[in-house]
């Protein structure tokens, strides 16, 4: 027997058509069907076969089932089918009245009792429902407040991220600028101090990136100097809050051979008098 | 009688109508297949009213899932028959159904065809005739697999035969039916 015949006679195709195979087996069978026309033909024969088996068992549906099914698929309410056989045998639909018992007055009274009971029930039901709705409303309100808070927090986060992003982009531009010269300012007295200057000699702009400087006393402030022909010229003060991130733009510089940072009296001085922390020569 | 090609062309048309949620298409579907699908459900749950409720579920499922029917994987009626069987078998296994019905013991099958699987309802005489021509052990396998929702390994266990035999016996039964029907 050939491989294909073996495959057909294994019975897997019957299982496949009956939906009894695993997803993995389905993939295999589908591949075999695509590859071998004999297998495809066999599958079609099995399908027809199972259809005739099912057709042999056919049962005519109740006459109003079709309308119910159309109601169901079109989302209309499905009419309740009459179930005569649900009624106790012989008494179907027949109301039994005991002619020996006549209580019209009691009957009247009963109607009132029922009416009152019904109103009270409705009232209680309505009150309970209102209470329930009120609870729902409160839940919704607190949920809304929560969402509003969350929304404003997200907005703040977003704004701060946007600022960060803007700064990073600016910084990147400075780093990548081909005309920008990077000067490393290395420690003079304190060994861990470090800063970088990015000087665009075309645009004359100067940015300082402070990598590390010791925390200054309240009365003191760092000052940046451009040194031209041995003469230091102040190009600005660093913020007293010690927040140097990410880069700070200083005054423009036309020409200089070196940059330095010194610690001066708060507010700055015209000529450097304090301790020099970092210095970088071009 | 239509040729196979004509039949397939007719079915392709029907599928297109069904995918468009065309009322006429569902009308045709109902007229052509409702008795067959109801018969399958009756075989599974055994009672007409329950089967008719399930048939309603089946049509809703067809309506909702027709988009996922892929003609490359088989004929429309095979897809519908499997939805129908699964719906019936799910019901058969559900708690509320088992409560009403004595849980059917698996070993009743060992001696061959169950009494209730060949009810004398006029509508199912066709099936009875068909099935009478099969060997009992062949029909039992088809009945368990196709109408009672047994998996192949459950069938093998219940009948005390190897899994491979379940598959080949099902195949032999369907081959036998093929010669009877055509």
Give a structural overview.
The complex is a heterodimer of chains A (282) and B (182). Chain A has 282 residues and is an alpha+beta fold. Chain A contains 6 helices and 8 strands, in the order H-H-H-H-H-H-E-E-E-E-E-E-E-E. An 8-stranded antiparallel β-sheet of chain A has the order 5-4-7-8-1-2-3-6. In chain A, strand 2 and strand 3 form a beta hairpin. In chain A, helix 3 crosses helix 4 (37-56). The relative contact order of chain A is 0.06. The longest helix of chain B has 23 residues, at 23-45. Chain B is globular, with a radius of gyration of 17 Å. Chain B starts with a helix and ends with a helix. Chain B folds into 2 domains: 1-112, RNA polymerase sigma factor, region 2, helix turn helix motif (Rna Polymerase Sigma Factor, Chain: A, Orthogonal Bundle); 126-182, Arc Repressor Mutant, subunit A. Chain B contains 9 helices and no strands. In chain B, helix 8 packs across helix 9 (163-181). Helices cover 70% and strands 0% of the residues of chain B. Mean pLDDT of chain B is 81; it is low at 103-124. With 182 residues, chain B is mainly alpha-helical. At the A-B interface, helix 2, helix 4 and helix 5 of A face helix 2, helix 3, helix 4, helix 6 and helix 7 of B.
Fold blueprint:
The complex is a heterodimer of chains A (282) and B (182).
Chain A: H1 3-9, H2 12-17, H3 23-35, H4 37-56, H5 65-73, H6 104-176, E1 180-187, E2 194-200, E3 206-212, E4 220-228, E5 231-237, E6 248-250, E7 258-265, E8 275-281
Antiparallel strand pairs in A: 1-2, 1-8, 2-3, 3-6, 4-5, 4-7, 7-8
Chain B: H1 4-19, H2 23-45, H3 48-65, H4 76-93, H5 95-100, H6 125-132, H7 136-147, H8 152-159, H9 163-181
Helix pairs in contact in B: 1-2, 2-3, 2-4, 3-4, 7-9, 8-9
